[in-house]
Every structure is written in C-alpha cells, then in structure tokens.
Structure to design on (90 residues):
C-alpha cells in the first residue's frame, strides 16, 4: 500500500546530529485547533487594521478631504484624529 504523497513524511531521519527545526512552525499548524486559532487571530488583526479610524484604509479618504478640501495642516489633522480617538474611547 502506497503512502499519500501530499504529506511530508516526518519519519525521515537526517544525517545531522541536530534536529531539523526549520519546519517546526509549519508542523504545529497541521493541528486543527492551532490552525483555527491562528486563522481567527489573523483575520481579527486584518479587520482591525483596515477599519482603524486613526490609521486604517477607511481613514485615507478622510485624510485627503481634510488636507485638500479643508486645507488643514498636519498638526491640525492629527488633532482632529486625536479628538476622534478620544471621543471613540469614551
């Protein structure tokens, strides 16, 4: 009976005296609970980064509007976002 060739055979011994740790992180992701947890946190950080009001992608049109249409300086723009962040937290 042949083995499935899509998986790496972990039983192959190397000639080095030190254990091979280059794929240790990838081997840990083969476990379903760890993979699900890693996927969840990656998605959460991605969504948080996009929707962050102070530095996310959603913020870019607002920065352009403040800079080009209203003519605010960088100091005034940062003051605006500081005020938005403080009021959002409270």
């Amino acid at each position: 009976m042949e083995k499935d060739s899509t998986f790496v055979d972990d039983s192959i011994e190397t000639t080095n005296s030190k254990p091979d740790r280059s794929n240790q992180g990838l081997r840990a992701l083969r476990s379903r609970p760890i993979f699900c947890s890693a996927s969840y946190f990656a998605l959460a950080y991605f969504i948080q980064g996009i929707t962050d009001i102070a530095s996310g992608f959603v913020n870019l049109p607002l920065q352009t509007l403040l800079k080009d249409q209203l003519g605010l300086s960088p100091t005034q723009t940062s003051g605006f976002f500081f005020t938005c962040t403080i009021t959002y937290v409270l």
In short: The CA atoms of residues 12 and 75 lie 61 Å apart. Residues 32-51 form the longest helix (20 residues). Residues 26-89 form one domain.
